[in-house]
Specification:
The chain has 295 residues and is of the alpha+beta class. The longest helix is centred in the C-terminal third of the chain and has 13 residues. The chain is elongated, with a radius of gyration of 42 Å. About 9% of the residues have low confidence.
């Protein structure tokens, strides 16, 4: 009998349950500004936060001039439809489909009626580098399980890379009667806080373990607040620490003495054969050279 694919969670760990619940339902951040929202942080907010931020920004001239820019950021995490027809029936129709409807008014000539709903993450193709850290491990495994039940290897390399950017993943495939062996890998992973998806493969079972990676702390560089005058003083102080030594006066006196050549060291190769003709008259020098050549 085949084992039905299932997601096993460490439900007995109350603290982990509370942490996961908080992650799935992020609290509103009243201090968040529309200008500070990014395609990553937008996944942390809900529909009511969107309306509140847009209402607060209706008096901002910069936002008014760049509505489409900011709207595109929100569209990465929300389904946003502009309603052209006003009316209770239209609004009710959107609300039945899970949307929240509200009017955003910049002035009398510029106003919108928007229907907004958070983008659902149902398939592996819905995963992105921006939203991968904004879902729980249990939710991730549910999404993987919907991928035709093929297990980890059925995912494309690009999808695996996205998942691994936010989660620690490990897998093992064992006969179904050995997977839950007491004290084995399965028990150790669950005790360590991993959620598990079991994918049946005939008489074998692939276990996919997933755990959200901790946030990496970003290192911030600190710069000195000293004024330029202080820096100049420090530079002068630094220069005082260094002394230039006069090494030229410390050479040996013996280096100044020119030693006479040693007759024993003179050889046929190093002996100079240049002749002193002893005359400054060019004609005499030429005649002497001629005599020397004839010899």
């Amino acid at each position: 009998m085949l084992i039905k694919n299932k997601v096993v969670t460490f439900a007995e760990n109350f603290s982990n349950i509370m942490a996961r619940t908080k992650q799935q339902q992020p609290e509103s951040n009243p201090a968040l500004s529309i200008k500070a929202v990014t395609k990553n942080s937008v996944w942390d907010i809900q529909e009511n936060d969107v309306f509140r931020m847009w209402e607060a920004a209706t008096k901002d001239a910069e936002v008014k001039e760049n509505i489409q820019h900011y709207l595109d950021i929100f569209k990465s995490a929300f389904l946003i439809e502009e309603i052209k027809e006003e009316g209770a029936l239209v609004k009710k129709g959107y609300e039945k489909r899970g949307y929240k409807v509200m009017e955003i008014k910049f002035d009398e000539n510029l106003k919108f009626i928007w229907a907004i709903k958070k983008r659902p993450i149902m398939r592996v193709t819905d995963l992105s580098y921006e939203n991968i850290r904004h879902i729980s491990a249990a939710k991730l495994l549910e999404v993987i399980d919907r991928n035709f039940g093929g297990g980890w290897d059925s995912l494309s390399q690009s999808i695996q890379d996205i998942i691994l950017s936010g989660f620690d993943i490990s897998t093992t495939t064992l006969p179904k009667d050995r997977l839950h062996k007491k004290g084995g890998m399965y028990d150790k992973k669950v005790e360590d806080g991993f959620d598990v998806l079991e994918v049946s493969k005939g008489g074998w079972v692939e276990a996919i373990f997933a755990k959200l990676k901790p946030e990496e702390e970003k290192i911030k560089m600190k710069f000195s607040d000293k004024s330029s005058s202080d820096s100049d003083e420090d530079l002068e102080d630094d220069n005082e620490d260094y002394e230039v030594e006069d090494n030229y006066s410390s050479h040996d006196e013996e280096d100044d003495e020119v030693q006479d050549p040693n007759d024993d060291e003179i050889t046929e190769d190093n002996y100079s054969t240049m002749m002193d003709l002893g005359s400054d008259d060019p004609e005499d020098e030429a005649a002497n050279m001629l005599d020397y050549v004839e010899e």
